[in-house]
Design brief:
158 residues, alpha+beta
Length: 158
């Protein structure tokens, strides 16, 4: 399962960037990288995506993350001889889930730092793991709509 190399690489990249962030910036500190477009802004999130949170959320999100990680890993194993696009999508999703799960377990919150603004719109601050899940979901949707449907429509010759 060579796509697991991709998963490990993304998890390492995610954790190294978060380590560098925590060791070189103060919480809520922001550094401009590209004026009026891109900053490194150190914030934390003890909830889910887009700041969604509720009492006991850390435990629920961690539990759901562990369960989903197991399910995605199982699905990846089941598809180990399947479509490369599907396996790559699952590898990206798995990497993002593991990267943020590590943060929740070790720190009780997830570190975010990629901060974009464009055309007067400020996007949510996110991290490498969040990006990985997003890329994986986009690839999964592409696979589901364009490839998986065409594979189902091909009838085997008996």
């Amino acid at each position: 399962m060579t796509v697991l190399i991709l998963t490990v690489f993304i998890v390492i990249l995610d954790q190294v960037t978060k380590y560098l962030l925590r060791s070189s910036m103060s919480l809520h500190e922001s550094r401009t990288i590209i004026e009026n477009f891109f900053n490194f802004t150190y914030v934390t999130n003890d909830g889910m995506a887009f700041g969604i949170n509720f009492p006991g959320g850390l435990y629920i999100f961690s539990g759901v993350s562990i369960i989903m990680t197991i399910i995605i890993f199982w699905y990846l194993w089941r598809e180990r001889w399947g479509s490369l696009l599907l396996r790559t999508a699952l590898a990206f999703i798995l990497a993002g889930a593991v990267g943020n799960l590590i943060d929740r377990i070790l720190y009780g919150e997830v570190a975010d730092f990629l901060d974009f603004s464009f055309w007067g719109y400020h996007w949510y601050i996110f991290n490498i793991a969040d990006s990985s899940v997003t890329i994986g979901m986009i690839l999964f949707i592409i696979y589901s709509i364009f490839i998986n449907t065409s594979e189902k429509s091909v009838k085997p010759v008996i």
